[in-house]
């Protein structure tokens, strides 16, 4: 049987064009998805998985890519364009870094407030802490100032008023029990409880270590979002000021402010952390 070469060539060309069109459509559809790099300092993806699920449920073509950043450099990384937004800090730390480093960054949404509480395996109350007690403290600048404020509120120390919410050990002006302080990475502090008399622990790390962040502390600050004094410790989502009105970023904030994410926060922090938003 003879093959009609002319028809074969025409048919082959038609198939090739159709295939090219399909490939072009796929590329276009793939490119319409926006990837947003979110800088964090946590290894637990639960909350951001919930944000992604909310975006997907709304049909938003936004893909969150978590970039884990340590050492308190997530603001510099953001300012230099290595990430698109970050979510790892509270207002007090951001304001301190903006003033110190001249960073042009803006808060685009609030997330939660995580208590820092005083835990002990040796004592059941503040009154039982002996003179010279060893106290574990977080060594990172995001949390050390806040930890010292918790000890101040507990009546254990006094701080130089000029230190504000970002004080360091050198800002302690009164230490009547002669407490000694041991600085260490926040995630390691729960494992140190056998070696110290008490320690200030982020309730997220406490929950990860199997502690009860609601009932186990021997001292904890009451969290009241209506109290202006607690505003500096609300965690936030931050963008470069030039990108503060970015539509994709706004949609991520909206996805965060949902019941799905509030439930994820309750799960991770065993109901110790409080969402700093009204559920939409």
Jot down its keywords.
single chain, 280 residues, alpha/beta, D-Maltodextrin-Binding Protein, domain 2, 2 domains, five-stranded mixed sheet, 8 helices, 14 strands, 34% helix
| Arithmetic mean pLDDT | 88
Can you name the CATH architecture of the largest domain?
3-Layer(aba) Sandwich
In DSSP terms (H or I, runs of 4 or more residues), the helix count works out at 8
Q: Could you name the CATH homologous superfamily of the largest domain?
A: Periplasmic binding protein-like II
CATH topology of the largest domain: D-Maltodextrin-Binding Protein, domain 2
The first-level CATH class of the largest domain is given as Alpha Beta
Main sheet strand line-up: 2-1-3-13-4
SSE pattern, N- to C-terminal: HEHEHEHEEEEHEEEEHEEHHE
Task: Explain what you see.
The chain has eight helices and 14 strands. With 280 residues, the chain is of the alpha/beta class. The chain folds into two domains: 33-114 and 229-275, 3-Layer(aba) Sandwich (D-Maltodextrin-Binding Protein, domain 2); 116-222, D-Maltodextrin-Binding Protein, domain 2 (3-Layer(aba) Sandwich), CATH 3.40.190.10. Helix 2 (46-57) links the parallel strand 1 (34-40) and strand 2.
């Amino acid at each position: 049987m003879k093959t009609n070469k002319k028809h074969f060539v025409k048919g082959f060309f038609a198939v090739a064009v159709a295939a090219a069109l399909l490939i072009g459509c796929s590329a276009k559809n793939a490119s319409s998805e926006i990837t947003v790099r979110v800088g964090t300092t946590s290894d637990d993806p639960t909350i951001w998985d919930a944000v992604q699920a909310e975006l997907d449920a709304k049909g938003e073509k936004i893909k969150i890519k978590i970039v884990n950043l340590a050492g308190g450099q997530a603001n510099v990384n953001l300012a230099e364009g290595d990430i698109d937004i970050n979510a790892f800090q509270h207002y007090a730390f951001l304001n301190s870094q903006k003033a110190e480093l001249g960073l042009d960054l803006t808060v685009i949404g609030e997330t939660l407030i995580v208590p820092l509480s005083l835990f002990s395996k040796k004592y059941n109350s503040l009154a039982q802490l002996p003179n010279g007690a060893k106290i574990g403290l977080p060594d990172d600048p995001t949390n050390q100032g806040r930890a010292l404020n918790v000890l101040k509120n507990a009546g254990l120390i006094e701080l130089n008023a000029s230190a504000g919410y970002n004080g360091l050990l050198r800002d302690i002006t009164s230490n009547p029990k002669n407490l000694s302080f041991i600085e260490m990475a926040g995630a390691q502090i729960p494992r140190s409880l056998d070696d110290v008399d008490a320690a200030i622990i982020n309730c997220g790390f406490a929950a990860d270590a199997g502690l009860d962040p609601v009932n186990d502390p021997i001292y904890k600050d009451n969290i009241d979002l209506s109290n202006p004094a607690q505003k500096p410790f609300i965690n936030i989502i931050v963008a470069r000021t030039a990108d503060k009105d970015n539509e994709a970023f706004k949609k991520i904030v909206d996805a965060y402010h949902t019941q799905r994410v509030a439930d994820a926060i309750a799960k991770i922090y065993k109901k110790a952390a409080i969402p700093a938003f009204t559920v939409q």
